[in-house]
Amino acid sequence: MKILFLCTGNSCRSQMAEGWARALKAEAFEAYSAGVVKHGLNPLAVKAMAESGVDIAGHESNTVDELPVTEFDYVITLCGHANENCPFFPGKVRRVHAGFDDPPALAKGVASDEEALVHYRRVRDEIREYVLGLPEALESEG
């Protein structure tokens, strides 16, 4: 089973989801992530994931067109913008929306990275819990 986590910029939430999926569910499915556009990997997302023992520092921010795989069983959108602007995927792909808050938006205007990381950690942990329920949770969606 191939799952794509799709977000606006493939910088934070979708990268976290891919990282968790590869760390926790590698035997259950192949995980990929992409963005509707490409914003680059967010360093605070990398730091928050590293705190939990998951290294995403080697990930790259990609658009769907840059992925090595073109057919997915599921495309999971992680933000409203990606859900509304999800590209067309041929074949039997099923789309599922699982929205999460945007850590960079939540952290806008904070005084330090440490203050910002509070938001990144919360969303990281929420995404972890979601990924732990996969792929079983997807079966009930369809």
UniProtKB/TrEMBL annotation:
<dbReference type="Pfam" id="PF01451">
    <property type="entry name" value="LMWPc"/>
</dbReference>
<dbReference type="InterPro" id="IPR023485">
    <property type="entry name" value="Ptyr_pPase"/>
</dbReference>
<keyword id="KW-0059">Arsenical resistance</keyword>
<feature type="domain" description="Phosphotyrosine protein phosphatase I">
    <location>
        <begin position="1"/>
        <end position="137"/>
    </location>
</feature>
<dbReference type="GO" id="GO:0046685">
    <property type="term" value="P:response to arsenic-containing substance"/>
</dbReference>
<dbReference type="InterPro" id="IPR036196">
    <property type="entry name" value="Ptyr_pPase_sf"/>
</dbReference>
<protein>
    <submittedName>
        <fullName>Truncated arsenate reductase</fullName>
    </submittedName>
</protein>
